Amino acid sequence: MKITSKTLFLVTILVGGGSLLFFIMKKDWFGVAFSGYLFLKGLHLSFDQEAYDEGIKEANLKKALHRKTFGKFAPFAPYVPYFLLVLAWGLTKVFEVTLFLRIALMSIVLFTFLYILWFGQIIKKERQKAEVLESNVIMEQVEHPKS
């Protein structure tokens, strides 16, 4: 087996393995499952060239779609769900939990969920457009060979 990305491999082993061991020691089974999934995915991407190339292609597609959708705010757009969840957590630490705060927190979490779904739909539509264009090119090559 050949390592396709040494950086990804080292980060997977150090960070992923470390977090996996941390959650095992804490006996936090949700954390074990989540960090185990990320650890295995990192190893898969580190050793499989096709998966690594597909991951790079996916990251570039998301970056281009963020640029197209959000313009100059594109560098911050991928982090909006994380920011909103940290904001919700921070509000629970600062203010006393009341009915109004619960409604605000549920609104923030709902908005975060809808944001993720919305951007997922944008990515799905863009992939479908790319597949249609690719299939049209293949059909043209079959119909009109270059011989």
Keywords:
flat; 147 residues; mainly alpha; 5 helices; 83% helix; 2 domains
Structure description:
- There is one protein chain.
- This protein has 147 residues and is mainly alpha-helical.
- The chain has 2 domains: 1-47; 57-147.
- 83% of the residues lie in helices and 0% in strands.
- It has 5 helices and no strands.
- It has helices spanning 6-26, 29-47, 49-70, 80-94, 99-143.
- Helix 1 (6-26) runs antiparallel to helix 2 (29-47), helix 2 (29-47) crosses helix 3 (49-70) and helix 4 runs antiparallel to helix 5 (99-143).
- The mean pLDDT is 86.
Number of extended strands: 0
Q: Treating each run of at least 4 consecutive H or I residues as one helix, how many helices?
A: 5
Arithmetic mean of pLDDT: 86
The residue ranges in which pLDDT falls below 50 over 5 or more consecutive positions are none
Largest sheet data: none
Distance linking N and C termini:
39 Å
**Count of individual domains:** 2
Coarse shape:
flat
Helical proportion, percent range: over 70%
Succession of helices and strands: HHHHH
Query: Could you say which structural class the secondary elements and strand pairing correspond to?
Result: mainly alpha
Compute the gyration radius: what is it? Answer: 21 Å
Residues in β-strands, percent: under 5%
Task: Provide a brief overview of the structure.
With 147 residues, the chain is mostly helical. It has 5 helices and no strands.
